[in-house]
Amino acid sequence: MFSNLNSNKLRGDASVLDKALLIQLGGSVAAVALLVAFAAWMGVARETPPLDPDIARALIALEFPDHKPDAVWIAADGAGIIAREGALALVLYRRGDGYVARDLPWSAVAALKPTKGRLALKLPDARPVFAVNDDVWPPKEFA
Amino acid sequence: MLKAPFDPVQMAIPFFVLAIILEILIGRFGKAKANYETRDTAMSLSMGFGSTIAGLLLGGVIFAVTVWVWKHRIFTIPMTAVWAWIAVFLLEDLTYYWFHRLAHERRVWWASHVNHHTSTHYNLSTALRQTWTGGVAGTWLLWLPLSFLGFPPAMVAIQKGVSLVYQFWIHTEAIKRMPRWFEAVFNTPSHHRVHHARNARYLDANYAGILIIWDRMFGTFIPEVDEEPCRYGTVKNLGNFNLFHNVFHEWIGIAKDVAASPRHALGYIFGPPGWSHDGSRDTSHTLKAKWRARMEAGEGAPPQ
Question: Which of A9, A119, B96, B147 could be stapled to B70 by a disulfide with Cβ–Cβ 3.0 to 4.6 Å?
Fold first, then answer.
């Protein structure tokens, strides 16, 4: 009887603990959601205006300091860069309010076919899409 | 003596929330520099939440091992003595320095720590971008000597919590510099911005928890220079905002490298991040050497 009482009490304590833990976890999830919503509402991300040739060159120099690309192409919407240095493609694409840099063989980039003005690149950890004018690829910059 | 009567981190959570709200407002109204990107913030806060769950899963094992070690202690150190708190403050902070240095300089521990560094922002939410895999990586083993010396597990746990709470406020761009005497002794927003920077100049520096003196003593201190603002994130920034990719990408990278070159497994696991058997990748060391070469070649500071 006592052992039953004790085990019942233990079960009771455990359920109180579980409930407290669940409340705490639920509260944490709600707090995270509210903080994210508040940050979005306040609009305090960095500004990302469309890239121009000067900014594009500066970004490449920053992300690929050991490279001197022969040609640089800026996406039609100004949200990405593809540069070529010999057999290498240097790629920058927008992620959030910043840019991600990757390099890959130029042959892989040259072989891409744009559809409906969009050039989709396959990277190991992302699928960035570049806006292309008139579905012409590679553009004249790489001629 | 065994279980801490309170958890400084749990107690500080309301302060964390209020401080983040305040920093967002400061940024919104242009009173100081503070940028928050929605998905980046979501990832940072989700990492913080997930780390508490991960902590629950392995917390029991870690606690049991710590208690076992303490039961085999050399001395019995009282929790009520002031000298004991001063000693645990210094020794825990020294332990943190070496944990943190290992977590950056050896890939297996970097795999569990890298996700704290993947934000391209530096704000208070970044402080909460905590690891989910620290328990598995076993970095907690480094704190066991304190228990073996005789510091009660509760005392060590409280001091670890104090250190974590201290490190929250230094994740901000809103504070430029603290008074000179403070910058000389303590870890500050300026010192820690350098630690989170991906500029070659700043790599592998300022590992301090609370006291920056350890970096000054062990030669890893680099000051923030105004001519080269910090750019945040990792050398190769994450390509997406996938939470699980952030948590596991380096572990997966290690597994792939070991599977591809089993003969070089030790190098891929315990070598520095970026190490490769054929030298085809860059480590912090090679990146810094290239940066120095560019500076010596007169290319000057990189454009901002």
Answer: B147
Q: What is the ipTM of this complex?
A: 0.91
- Is B240 touching A (CB cutoff 8 A)? yes
The upper half-sphere exposure of residue B211, i.e. CA atoms within 13 Å in the direction of its Cβ, equals: 16
Averaged pLDDT score across all residues of chain B: 96
Helix (H, G, I), strand (E, B) or coil at A136: coil
Which residues of B fall within a CB distance of 8 Å from A39? Answer: 24, 36-38, 41, 125
pLDDT digits (tens, 9 = 90+) for B165-178: 999 999 999 999 99
A99: nearest Cα among A116, A119, A120, A78: A78
> Residue B100 in contact with residue B94, Cβ under 8 Å?
no
Q: Which residue of A has its CA nearest to B25?
A: A42
**B238 and chain A in contact, CB less than 8 A:** yes
B114 in A contact zone (CB under 8 Å): no
What three-state secondary structure class fits A44?
coil
Confidence of residue A12 (pLDDT cuts 50, 70, 90): low
Chain A residues whose beta carbon lies within 8 Å of the beta carbon of residue B302: 61-62, 65
Altogether, the residues listed in chain B come to a count of 304
Token reading at B284? 């912090």
Q: Which residues of A touch B240 (CB under 8 A)?
A: 95, 125-126
Can you tell me the distance from the alpha carbon of A55 to that of A122, in angstroms, rounded to the nearest whole number? Answer: 25
Look up residue B75 and give its two tokens.
């001395």
DSSP A12: H
**Main-chain dihedrals φ then ψ at residue B221, nearest 5 degrees:** -85, 130
Minimum distance, in Å, between the CA of residue B66 and any CA atom of chain A = 24
pTM over 0.95: no
- Which amino acid is it at B95? T
Does the distance separating the beta carbons of B52 and A62 come in below 8 Å? no
Is B156 in contact with B143 (CB distance < 8 Å)? yes
| Residue B263, pLDDT score | 98
Placement of tokens 């989700």 in the chain: B46
Interchain contact, B37 vs A96, CB within 8 Å: yes
Q: Under an 8 A CB cutoff, do A40 and B38 touch?
A: yes
Q: Does A19 touch chain B (CB under 8 A)?
A: no
